[in-house]
Amino acid sequence: MPVAVVILAAGQGSRMKSDLPKVLHKVAHAPLLVHAMRAAQSIDAERIVVVTGHGGEQVAEAARDYAAETLLVSQDEQLGTAHAVQQAAEVLADFDGDVAVLYGDTPFIREETLQNMMDARAKGAGVVVLGFEAADAGRYGRLVLDADGGLQKIVEAKDATPEEMAITLCNSGVICADRAVLFDLIAAVENTNASGEYYLTDVVGLARARDLPCAAITCPEAETMGVNSRVDLAAAEATFQAQAQSEALENGTTLSAPETVFFAYDTYVGRDVIIEQNVVFGPEVTIESGALIRAFSHLEGCHVSQQAIIGPYARLRPGAEIGNGARVGNFVEVKAAIVGEGAKINHLSYVGDAEIGDDANIGAGTITCNYDGVFKHQTVIGARAFIGSNTALVAPVRVGDDAMTASGSVVTSDIPDADLGIARAKQVNKAGLALRLMNKLRAAKAAQNKDE
Ligand code: UD1
Ligand code: MG
């Protein structure tokens, strides 16, 4: 059955105390909204509709940045969850299939859970709701089941009787039904309740009144966690990281101290990668199998190939492409640079806007001077080249295959293949001058001490 997903993201999120719309706050480097969009993608949603309201333009832009084909509708006044979903009626009018509703501030709904809901639909439930056993049911809507275990209705806490308040099976907010049925039911929802809002949850009672069977599927409470405050946001980050760390271990990655490794939402790590303590991943990192990421390294927007060794204390920035078996050592920063197979940049270097050939060796303290204040320029270093320590490569510049630079050189013009480039002042030794100078200074100090 084809499915479309409607993501509710119109709420203000005033408890975040932020100028940024709530759903744009990030967990693991992705906005909460993107986490919800990824959940929709996990079940191959044919259409994703985001309902925007507060900060609508910003939210729309973030949604389109992530997936250009996202459909956007706005809810100018927040009159309740049913009213929010109703805004999507028009863009889905020609959609033949199911509609699932997710919240933009609820980032952790798993594919498997959504699949269970689809399965319940396939087995004949007209409306399927995702519930969970709440440790503290508080203000959640309560799922009222009938004697056969079917879902009878959902009661909002504000409208519940004391008996209903005692129910611990709560509504996550995720709901799924046939598109035509859902919008038909929503059209019948009224706002005669304690909040004066159009409750999406009312569709269950309305469906039952039409003899449409409804079902509740459950998932662990942690999965339904919503973010309403900065405290929630920090808790969501911790939940994400704990999950990512255990997934990495399960998928064949060694983590020396799992709780100190921070993943991004899209970090890809191959088998038999070893990640030491205190490593941080920004977005868009892929690590191939057998690589070693040593302690205190920071990686973002980069690719590390098999058997490469990164760190300790390395920084890989966007566009760093590290070849098989290459090494990037301590206090080395690499940006927008291709580092060839077996190449070594072991100590204290900046390599930006560059190409480093296979098996080249970049000496300690080498800097690519890539920026002239206005433009960026390329540095190309050939295969097997040997860059002497403390070389400044003033780009644009090319060092040929098998070429060398003398330590301390400031290289401003190309060095042909196999040549040695020396670009520094010639050394002059003054015979005995060091000792004579020192003796003179010591004598001056002795004279000064006597005067005092
Ligand atoms: C809702 C459910 C409740 C459930 C709880 C789970 C209803 C009536 N109640 O309650 O049963 O236990 O979520 O967290 O659905 N939103 C809009 N437009 C609106 C109203 C809400 O986009 O007009 C968005 C909010 O930004 C939020 C989500 O929908 O992301 C849920 O709205 P919220 O006001 O938090 O609903 P709850 O009262 O928590
Ligand atoms: Mg809520």
SSE layout:
Blueprint: E1 3-9, E2 26-27, E3 30-31, H1 32-42, E4 47-52, H2 56-66, E5 71-74, H3 81-86, E6 98-103, H4 111-122, E7 127-133, E8 142-145, E9 151-155, H5 162-165, E10 169-178, H6 179-187, H7 202-209, E11 214-218, H8 230-250, E12 254-255, E13 268-269, E14 274-275, E15 280-281, E16 286-287, E17 292-293, E18 298-299, E19 303-304, E20 309-310, E21 314-316, E22 320-322, E23 327-330, E24 332-339, E25 344-347, E26 350-356, E27 361-362, E28 367-369, E29 379-381, E30 386-387, E31 392-394, E32 397-399, E33 404-405, E34 410-411, E35 420-421, H9 433-451
Helicity, in percent? 10-25%
Overall SS class: alpha/beta
CATH architecture of the largest domain: Alpha-Beta Complex
The mean pLDDT is 98
Helix segment count? 9
Shape: elongated
Highest-level CATH class of the largest domain: Alpha Beta
Low-confidence stretches: none
CATH superfamily of the largest domain: Spore Coat Polysaccharide Biosynthesis Protein SpsA, Chain A
Q: How many domains, in number, for the residues?
A: 2
Look up the CATH topology of the largest domain. Answer: Spore Coat Polysaccharide Biosynthesis Protein SpsA, Chain A
Strand content: 25-35%
Radius of gyration over alpha carbons? 31 Å
